[in-house]
């Protein structure tokens, strides 16, 4: 669920690893604790991005697998949880970009599919779906760091958590958010204009 706090935030550092053949590898029991501490929240973040819980769970598992396979430096300051959320956000962005490429080949009639007759307000449903589509399209267009900070912030992450996750100082988080929100707003207005153009048959150029 949105904003759910995972216990032990930032506590799973490289001290929970074991040294093997010159590389730092996971201890299985440590990885299991790490997985259960963060899985629900990672799925929540991804679900907000892709709008499909089953796909969000698949991407979350992929993110954890990437973390498990990646050797990390044996430093007590190792920010493994931050790396996890950045990895998950990047997977979500890749998913949105892949969807956008597929949608380039869709006809307008397919994008505005008929709403079932038992829907209370078909027009409202169409508008809500168009808004969700535009939001995800804009996130896919943003720089990864901008998309990451927006998605994580709107998933309930505090400024301290954002700083730790993104590997920046807390004092820079506010400026990063403002810039990301400004860029999002600019691109979203363009996407809305394009949507309006499609609905009237006069689509605007990007």
How are the strands of the largest sheet arranged?
1-2
SS field, number of helical segments = 8
- What level of helicity do the residues show? 55-70%
What general form does the structure show?
globular
Q: How far apart, in Å, are the first and last alpha carbons? A: 35 Å
What does the largest sheet look like? Answer: 2 strands, antiparallel
Roughly what fraction of the amino acids lie in strands? under 5%
Q: pLDDT under 50 segments (min length 5)?
A: 1-22, 111-115
Task: Name the helix and strand elements from N-terminus to C-terminus, one letter apiece.
Answer: EEHHHHHHHH
What would you call the structural class?
Answer: mainly alpha
Query: How many β-strand stretches?
Result: 2
State Rg: 20 Å
**What is the typical, i.e. mean, pLDDT?**
76
Commentary on this structure:
It is globular, with a radius of gyration of 20 Å. The relative contact order is 0.11. The protein has a two-stranded antiparallel sheet with strand order 1-2. Helices cover 67% and strands 4% of the residues. It is mainly alpha-helical and 206 residues long. α1 runs parallel beside α3 (80-103), α3 (80-103) crosses α7 (159-166) and α6 packs across α8.
């Amino acid at each position: 669920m949105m904003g759910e706090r995972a216990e032990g935030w930032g506590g799973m550092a490289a001290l929970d690893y074991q040294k093997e053949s010159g590389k730092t590898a996971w201890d299985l029991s440590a990885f299991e604790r790490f997985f259960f501490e963060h899985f629900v929240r990672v799925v929540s973040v991804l679900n907000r991005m892709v709008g499909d819980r089953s796909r969000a769970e698949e991407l979350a598992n992929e993110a954890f697998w990437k973390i498990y396979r990646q050797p990390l430096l044996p430093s007590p300051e190792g920010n493994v949880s931050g790396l996890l959320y950045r990895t998950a956000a990047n997977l979500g962005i890749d998913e949105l970009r892949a969807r956008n490429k597929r949608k380039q080949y869709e006809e307008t009639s397919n994008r505005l599919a008929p709403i079932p007759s038992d829907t209370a307000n078909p027009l409202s449903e169409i508008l809500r779906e168009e808004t969700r589509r535009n939001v995800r399209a804009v996130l896919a267009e943003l720089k990864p760091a901008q998309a990451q900070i927006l998605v994580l912030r709107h998933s309930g992450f505090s400024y301290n958590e954002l700083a730790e996750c993104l590997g920046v100082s807390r004092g820079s988080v506010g400026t990063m958010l403002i810039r990301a929100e400004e860029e999002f707003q600019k691109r979203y207005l363009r996407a809305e204009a394009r949507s309006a153009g499609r609905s009237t048959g006069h689509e605007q150029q990007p």
